[in-house]
Amino acid sequence: MYQFSKDLYADVRIEEIYELWLGVKNGELDSDGMVRERGAMIRVFDGKMWYTSTTNKLDEIQKELDNLAALATPNPDIMNHPQVKKLEVHTEEVIRFDGERDVRNITRAQWKALLDSYIDDCIDKSITEMGIWFVGTSCSHKKKSFYSSKGAHIEQDMQECSIAMWCGFTVDGVTTYGGKGYVELEPSKLYGHEEEIIKERDRYLDFARHAVQAEPGVYTCVLAPCVTAMFAHESFGHKSEADYMLNDKTLQEEWVMGKKVGSEKVFFCDDGSMMNHGYTPYDDEGSKAKKVWLMKDGVLTGRLHDAKSAMTLEEDLTGNCRAQSYSHFPMVRMTNTYMAAGTDDPEQMIKEVKDGIYVYMVQHGSGLATFTMKPSICYRIRDGKLCEPLRVNVLTGSVFETLFEIDAVGTDFEMFNAYTCGKNGQSAPVSAGGPSIRVKKLTVN
Predict the structure, then answer these.
(1) CA atoms of 166 and 180, how far apart (whole Å)
(2) Within a 13 Å sphere around the CA of 165, how many CA atoms are in the beta-carbon half?
(3) Which of 141, 316, 321, 420 could form a disulfide with 283 if both were Cys (CB 3.0 to 4.6 A apart)?
(4) Could you tell me if 410 and 433 are in contact, meaning their C-beta atoms sit under 8 angstroms apart?
């Protein structure tokens, strides 16, 4: 389709983007928009430098290729460059979202009807503590085409859609925000969640009414699956992104394949082929998604790569080079990252704790060597039973120390789609998952 210089490596990534969103706040339309966009990133590599250009004029892609090639230095041996040799060559069409499954075929009126039905069923205006509420729905579809001078030609699509509700409950001058949302790949899966949303609304209301401040200290903590998912993503997944260690000798020495860094109960994985929010059949360098075991039996077994990091560390590509959009340069990103299920009974985990904390939900987290998580709902554990709700400011610990402190991994594995990961100014859709786990020691502040 394009004429590539024989003495340079080049690739073209074209994206057709559709987005729609609607939101109602306290009964008033708060957001209402739609975007349709087409654009491309063109890249040329001469072995020393990347030359890039973006354009919304798809009929000028060849012109952009020629302009970039004129800036680069011809390299007759470019195909033997270690980074170029790493790049895979695939020719495949992976179109999964068409017909009724395609969000572009759902009208705005249908999205508004979905929104209104959840408002009617889930917003109880008789709750006097509820000072603010919001219900929103959104969808996006992206078709991506990839061509390279090595012969790759990939056509693929990906999409997401969501419904979410959150409320603010004010009790004694303190406002507690909480709610529940669903991110799915198909519109049909957004229906029928009213009961679950109402149950979560009432849990946050009860928390707002009865929560007490936790005493700082070191506690045995049982983490619910969604909290384990956050830990897997923030505390371990980011450490697995190999571009972080290219210029970090300390991390290179710490992250040695075959090194035991946690309990034998701990297994971590990243898999872009899973039909979850991080679904990425081919990454933005044209590499195919792979199931990458990052840890098995507490031993480091893998990490996530783009061509540069795979070249530098002399390891295989993993299909984890992703960009926010055609106007962004791709880099190493997670896809669907999770801690695998174990064999322990989640209820028994709690029963065996004499004095501890059950972490039900977290707002956000961060971390590489040291991680932090901001809980939204916790409960005190006394003599193996859940007691009063607790307000906890932050949970923190050393990643590798905490991995050794995990003494129980539950059977109740779940994947959670409602994640958007930020890195170096770019956002990417991801999923995270895990079961309940018990950690013997976590610092609570």
Answers:
(1) 6
(2) 28
(3) 321
(4) no
